[in-house]
Amino acid sequence: MSAITRLTIGALAVAALTACAAETPAGPGAAAQPGQAGPGKVAVAASDTECKVAVSEVAAGTSTFAVTNGGSKVTEFYVYAPGDRVMAEVENIVPGLTRELIAELPAGSYETACKPGMVGKGIRSPLKVTGEHKPLNADAKLAEATASYKRYVKSQSDTLLVKTQEFVDAVKAGEIDKAKELFPVSRTYWERIEPVAEIFGDLDPAIDAREADLAEGEEWTGFHKIEKDLWITKDISKDGPIADKLIADVKTIVAKANTAELTPLNLANGAKELLDEVATGKITGEEDIWSHTDLWDFAANLAGSKAAVQSLRPVLEERAPDLVKTLDEKFAAAEAELGKHQKGDGWRLHNELSKEELKSLSDVINALAEPISTIAPIVAK
Amino acid sequence: MSISRRTMFGLGAAGAAAVGAGAIAARSLLEEPTAAHAASTSDPFPFYGEHQAGIVTPAQDRLHFVAFDVTTSRRDELLELLQEWTAAAARLTQGKEAGAFGAVGGPAEGAPDDTGEALGLPASGLTLTIGFGASLFDDRFGLAAKLPAALAPLPKFPGERLIPEISGGDICVQACAHDPQVAVHAIRNLARIGFGRVSVRWSQLGFGRTSSTSRAQVTPRNLMGFKDGTNNMKLEDAALVREQLWASAADGAAWMAGGSYLVTRKIRMTIETWDRTSLREQEDIFGRDKGEGAPVGKAREFDPVDLAAMKPDAHVRLAHPSQHGDAHLLRRGYNFVDGSDGLGRLDAGLFFIAYQRDPRKQFVPVQMSLARTDPLNEYIKHVSSGLFACPPGVRDAGDFWGRELFA
C-alpha cells in the first residue's frame, strides 16, 4: 500500500504558523521557473485585492507555499484541483502574518486562490505541476479520496479551534459586539465539517443544540445558548461556564475527528447530509433563529459538501463522468445563487431575504442534492 | 322527508341511484350505460393513445394537481425532462414504480428511485395529464412562435382575488386516481425527477370529484351540497367532444392537434355563510333542487332545463350553453379542504378544472357572465387561476410529452 503511505504524507499538508514574515514575497520577475520550486518555498503575496504566487509551475511532489497577508482582511489560501477539489489549504491568515502550506501535488493543472475576507471564489491563478504522472488504481483512488478529505477536516478543525477560542474569549470578557461578530465566523468552520462531528453523537448536541431541540429539563449548552444571550437577553455575564464547556467540547471533538477512520461512503453521505442541513435548517432560518446568520452556515455547509464531493472526484470521473459534469454545474449554480446575497465579507441576514429569494436558494439545493444522493452507491461499488 | 347521506352515497358508489322515502323520485341510473364505470377502481387506464388520458377518462375520485416553473434555461435539459417524465408516467399509470429499481430493489447505499408509499397499491385508475402554460413560450426555449392564440391571457373577471404564487406556471401535471396516495405518489416522484430543471410553483389536492365525465357515473356533489356538472360534456357525446373539446391543426397551432386547453380556478367557498342560507334561496341560486338535482319545475336530474322557469340570475341559467352560443365545457373539478383559515372556518371550496377547444370562446364568456351576475359570488371567491395547453396523447414508447411542440 505504498500509495497510502505517500498519501499520508499528504495529510501533513497542515499550515505552520511562522513567527515572522521570513519569506518575503518574490517579485513578479521570479515567476514561472519550475526549478525554483524544488527545495525552496513558493512565496505568495496576498492582499485584499491580489494574490501573487511567485511561480506558475512547480514540480510534482511536495511544495511548500509561504503565504504572506499584506492586506487588511483575514485571508485563506487554497490549491485546487479541477472542480475545486481542495488539494491543500491554509485558513485564518491574519493581516501581517505569513503561514506555510505543504501540498502534495501530482502532475496536472491546478489553481491557487486567496480568499480575502474568507468569502467567495477567491482570486485565482493557474498552477501547473509537471513531472511524472502516476495514475492510481481504483483502490488507491478511493484511499486518496479519504486522505484528501481528512486533510480538509484537519485544516478546518484547526481553524475551528482558533476561532472558537477567540469567540469564547470575547464572551468571557463580556465583549458583546466582538462576540456577535465572531459567532458566525467560528461556526463556519464547524458547519463545514459537521457530518464528521456527528459521528460522535453525544458531543454534537452539546455544541450545537438549538433551544427547540431540547426535551423539557434538558441542559442547554453550546453556540446557540450563547447566541440567545448575545442577541436576545443581551446578558452574557453568566455564560463563562457555557463558554468554557464549548471550547472543551470543541477540543474533544476535533481530536476525535482527526483520528477517525473515514470511508468513501462517509464522504458521500456527509456531502448529502450537509445539504440536508441547508434544506431543513438554514433555508427555514431555524439554525440561527436569534442572530439570523443562517447564510454563513449555508455557505459553510455548501463548501463542506463540495470538499467531500471533490475529494471523490477522481473516482467519480472514472465511474460516472456524466455525474461529475452535472455536479460541477449544480455546485456552480448553487454558489451563484448564494453569491447574490453576499454582503461585504459576510452575508445578508436570513430575515432580510424575501420568500422568493429563499425559494430560489431552496431550488438550487434540491437540484444539487438529488445528484449528490446518487454518489454513495457509485463509490460503494 | 329525510335521506340518509350514507345510504345515498353508498348506493351511488355502486352505480345505482337512491330513492328517497318521500317526494323525491330519484332517476334511476340503471338505464345508463355502465361499462366505463364497471371496471374495478383499481385497474389501470391505458397511457398511450391519440389523446391524453385524464380528460374524457371517467373522472376519478381524487386529485393532486401541480404547477411547475421551469428553472433551467436550457432547451435540451427541458427536453430530457419531458422524456424522463413520460417514461415515468407510462410506468406509474400502469401501477409500476417510478424507476427501474423501485423503492427497495436498488443498492442499499443509494437513495431508492421510487419513494415507496404506493408499494402494494394497485394502479387505482391513475392518469397523468400534462399542460404547458403561456409563460413557457417566452424567449427561453425558442417556443415563442409556437404560442397558440387560444393561450391568450384570461381577462380580469370582476370579483376575483387571484394570488400570484398559486396561479399560473410553465408546466402543469394533473394526477387523478381513485386512491389519493397513488395520486400524491405520482406527483411527488415527478417533482423529484424534475429537481434542477423545474421547481414546484404550487400544488393542490382534491379529495372528491365534483363532475361526471361519463354517463356511467353518478353526478357527485360540490361542498355546497348540490349536484355539479349534470349537463357536463361527457365522453359519450362524440360529436360535441369532437367539436368543442379537441383542438385541431386548423385552429392555428398544429402541434396542439388532438390536444385540449385546460383552465383551472381555485374557488374558495365561505361554506359557513352558505350553510346559514335557506334551502329555498340555495335552490333558487343554483336553479336546481338540492335533493334530486332536477332543474326548476322538473322532476328528474336529467330532465331538460326550462331556463325561463328559473330566476334570471340562477347559476344554471347563466352558465347554460344556450346563453353563450352553445359553448360547452368538459368540467373535471374537485372539492378541496386545505385545513382551516385561522378564523375558525374551513379553508374549503372547489378546485375547478375545465377542458375545451378554445377558452376564448368557451370558458371566458361563461365565466364573465357568472362573475358579473351570479348570486353565488356572495359565497365564493376565485383565488387562483391557470391556463394550460395540453398536447395530444403519447402514441407509444418512442413518443413523449410535448414532442410535437419541440419538433
Ordered list of secondary-structure elements with their pairings:
The complex is a heterodimer of chains A (381) and B (407).
Chain A: H1 2-10, E1 16-17, E2 42-46, E3 51-53, E4 57-59, E5 61-69, E6 75-81, E7 85-93, E8 98-105, E9 108-114, E10 123-130, H2 138-172, H3 176-192, H4 194-197, H5 203-208, H6 223-233, H7 240-259, H8 264-282, H9 294-311, H10 313-319, H11 321-339, E11 342-343, E12 346-347, H12 355-372, H13 375-380
Parallel strand pairs in A: 2-5, 4-10
Antiparallel strand pairs in A: 1-8, 2-3, 5-8, 6-7, 6-9, 9-10, 11-12
Helix pairs in contact in A: 1-2, 2-3, 2-7, 2-9, 3-6, 3-9, 8-9, 8-12, 9-11, 10-11, 11-12
Chain B: H1 5-13, H2 35-38, E1 62-70, H3 75-92, E2 127-133, E3 171-177, H4 180-194, E4 198-206, E5 208-209, H5 238-244, E6 260-269, H6 271-275, H7 279-286, H8 315-319, E7 330-331, E8 334-340, E9 346-356, H9 363-373, E10 380-390, H10 403-406
Antiparallel strand pairs in B: 1-3, 1-4, 2-3, 2-10, 5-8, 6-9, 6-10, 7-9, 8-9
Cofactor (chain B): heme b
EC number (chain B): 1.11.1.-
Domain Dyp-type peroxidase C-terminal (chain B): 219-394
